[in-house]
Amino acid sequence: MSTLTPVSSFDDLRSLVRQLPQPDTAAAEACRRHEAELTKPAGALGRLEELTCWLSAWQGRHPPRLDRVLILVFVGWHEIAKHKVSAYPAEVTDQMVLNFQAGGAAINQLARLAGAELQVIPVGQGRPAHDFTRRPAMSEAGCVRALNIGLSAVPEDIDLLAIGEMGIANTTAAAAIAAGLYGEPATAWTGPGTGLDTSGVAHKAEVIQGALDRHRAALKDPLEVLRYVGGRELAAMLGAILAARLRRVPVILDGFTSTVPAAVLQALDPASIEHCRSGHCSAEPGHRRLLDRIGQRPLLELGMRLGEASGAAVALQLVRAAVACHNGMATFESAGVSRKR
Ligand SMILES: O=C(O)c1ccc[n+]([C@@H]2O[C@H](COP(=O)([O-])O)[C@@H](O)[C@H]2O)c1
Ligand SMILES: Cc1cc2nc[nH]c2cc1C
C-alpha cells in the first residue's frame, strides 16, 4: 500500500492543500444518467440520489462501491479540563479507550451494524494538549506530529471513511477554534458539551474568551488557531480528512468536534472539503452554526451529542440505502415499466 509522505511543517501542509485532486465528473455523470433510468419517478429518492453521485465522483467509479468502510476515532487529552469546562472528569478519556477496546461503547455497536471496520487511534497519549489559557495548546512540531498521525491513518483501498473523536474537554477546544477562526466571541460557539448547566456553559465561555484574548495576535492563520487553542485529536482529524481527499476517499463527518477540523481545512482552501458530507447535526448548539458556515446540510438530526463517530455511523446506513437502490434497482427498460408521459 502506498503511503502518503508525512509533512514536516505547516508550510508543507499548505503546499499539499494547493495540490488537491478534483472529483471525477465523468463517473458522477454516469451515475446521474443511470439514476434517471431506474424504476422510480425522476428524483424520487431525494437526497439519496445526490449521495450516490457524490460517492461516484470521489471514488472515481460507477457504480459506486461500499465494500470497505472504515471508521476512525481519534482520541485526545486536554489540560484545559482542569478548568472545570466539562461535566465529566478527565479520567473518562482513558476509561473510554478501554471501553472501545472491550467493545462496550456505542460506536462498537454502530460500526458493526453499519458493516464498517473501527479503529480507535490515541493521539499523544501521556502528552495532553497544554492548558491554552496559559500557553499554546501545541508546539508546531507537536501539531505536525498529530497531523501526520491522521495523514497516515487512511488506507488507499477504502471506499468510504467516517471520522469521529473522543476526549474530555474537547468541545472547549473545538469552540475556541471556531471562535478564533471566524473572529467571533466565545459565547457564540460555547455549549454544554457532555452536559454542563447554564452557569457551567457561562464559565466555559469565559475560559475560552480569556484564551482568545490572550492569543489574539496569533490567531490570524487557521493552522495557528488549531495549534494555539486546539488539541491533538483535532489536528489528527484534519490530517485524516486531507489524506482522504488526496486518496479520493469520500468522508462522512460526525458532530461539532469533528466538523471543526474540516472548517480549519476549508479556511485554508474553500474547495478542500467537497469530498466530505455531514452525517448529522449534533445537539451541541455550535454545530448547526458551523454547518451553516461551511455550507453543509447534515443527513440526520437526531439530537445526538455523543461524538465517537456515532452520528456518522448512523448516517452510514443512509449511504448504504442509497447504494443498495442505485446498484440493485431495475431500469425502466429491463423491467418493462413505462416512462413518464
Ligand atoms: O461532537 C459533538 O457534537 C459532541 C457534543 C458533545 C459531546 N461530545 C463528546 O463529549 C466529549 C467532549 O465533551 P466535553 O463536555 O468534555 O467538552 C468528547 O469525548 C466528545 O466526543 C461530542
Ligand atoms: C461516558 C462518555 C462517553 C463518551 N464518548 C465520547 N465522549 C464521551 C464522554 C463521556 C462522558
From TrEMBL:
Catalyzed reaction equations: 5,6-dimethylbenzimidazole + nicotinate beta-D-ribonucleotide = alpha-ribazole 5'-phosphate + nicotinate + H(+)
Pfam families, per the entry: DBI_PRT
GO molecular function, one term: nicotinate-nucleotide-dimethylbenzimidazole phosphoribosyltransferase activity
Top-rank taxon: Bacteria
InterPro entries hit by this protein: Nict_dMeBzImd_PRibTrfase, Nict_dMeBzImd_PRibTrfase_bact, Nict_dMeBzImd_PRibTrfase_N, Nict_dMeBzImd_PRibTrfase_sf
Protein's UniProt keywords contain Transmembrane: no
Record keywords: Cobalamin biosynthesis, Glycosyltransferase, Transferase
Catalytic residues identified in the record: E308
EC number(s) stated in the UniProt entry for this protein: 2.4.2.21
Pathway this chain belongs to: Nucleoside biosynthesis; alpha-ribazole biosynthesis; alpha-ribazole from 5,6-dimethylbenzimidazole: step 1/2
Cited PANTHER family: NICOTINATE-NUCLEOTIDE--DIMETHYLBENZIMIDAZOLE PHOSPHORIBOSYLTRANSFERASE
Function as written in the Swiss-Prot or TrEMBL entry: Catalyzes the synthesis of alpha-ribazole-5'-phosphate from nicotinate mononucleotide (NAMN) and 5,6-dimethylbenzimidazole (DMB).
Entry similarity comment: Belongs to the CobT family.
HAMAP family: CobT (MF_00230)
Protein name: Nicotinate-nucleotide--dimethylbenzimidazole phosphoribosyltransferase
Lineage, broadest ranks: Bacteria, Pseudomonadati, Pseudomonadota, Alphaproteobacteria, Geminicoccales
